[in-house]
Design goal:
With 195 residues, the protein is an alpha+beta fold. It folds into two domains: 90 residues, no CATH class; 64 residues, no CATH class. The protein contains four helices and 13 strands. The strands form four sheets. A five-stranded antiparallel sheet has the order 1-2-5-6-11. The longest helix is centred in the last third of the chain and has 13 residues. It is globular, with a radius of gyration of 19 Å.
């Protein structure tokens, strides 16, 4: 997939099935690789992948956000999410490996949690149960660039308070969209009034 070209994105999800998104890919940014000293890169066990697609048939934009992970936990893990739920979803090792392969990774790239210390990937039987941090995906259809920016920069915290933040990956995504879609240059960006 190249920026500025019409593309079809196919997402296979074990819960919601298959989703096909067709349009002009104007921004695509992944945080999968982390820069190391001496200019080398290494893959992260958890990363985000965000894309903006200009929908040519229906008009508007589609913002696709994915939270991806190679990390898995013990079935009876004490590791929890921000909502105090056990980390990951229970599945068999073979289901986990199939999900990891759909991410374009090899099964031996699965990462056992350092905290609860499940068996290493090569030690897992296919039927062994684990709690895998399944991909989480969200897509928003937006009418204009301003709505896309608003979805990317404004968020509701766990406490219920709204905040605005432009993290470096989000800034890069917005800059890509501006470069590959002339409509972004003239678009009205959201106006936030704080009184």
């Amino acid at each position: 997939m190249s920026l500025g070209e019409t593309t079809e994105i196919v997402i296979r999800d074990r819960v919601s099935g298959i989703t096909k998104i067709t349009g002009l890919l104007i921004a695509d940014l992944s945080t999968q690789r982390e820069r190391q000293p001496h200019g080398n890169y290494r893959p992260k066990p958890r990363w985000g992948h965000n894309r903006i697609v200009k929908l040519q048939e229906s008009g508007g934009y589609l913002l696709l956000r994915e939270a991806l992970s190679l990390t898995y936990h013990r079935v009876n893990t004490s590791c929890t999410t921000i909502n105090r739920q056990p980390s990951g979803e229970q599945c068999s090792a073979s289901e986990m490996f199939a999900e990891i392969e759909q991410l374009g990774m090899a099964r031996d790239e699965a990462v056992s949690c350092d905290r609860c210390q499940p068996q290493y990937p090569e030690e897992l039987r296919a039927t062994a149960l684990v709690r895998y941090e399944m991909p989480r995906r969200q897509w928003d259809q937006c009418e204009n660039p301003g709505q896309v920016v608003q979805r990317l920069t404004q968020m509701r915290r766990f406490s219920g308070v709204w905040s605005s933040e432009v993290a470096e990956p989000i800034r890069g995504l917005i800059e890509q969209a501006r470069l590959h879609d002339p409509d972004w240059a003239e678009a009205d960006m959201p106006v936030v009034e704080i009184r």
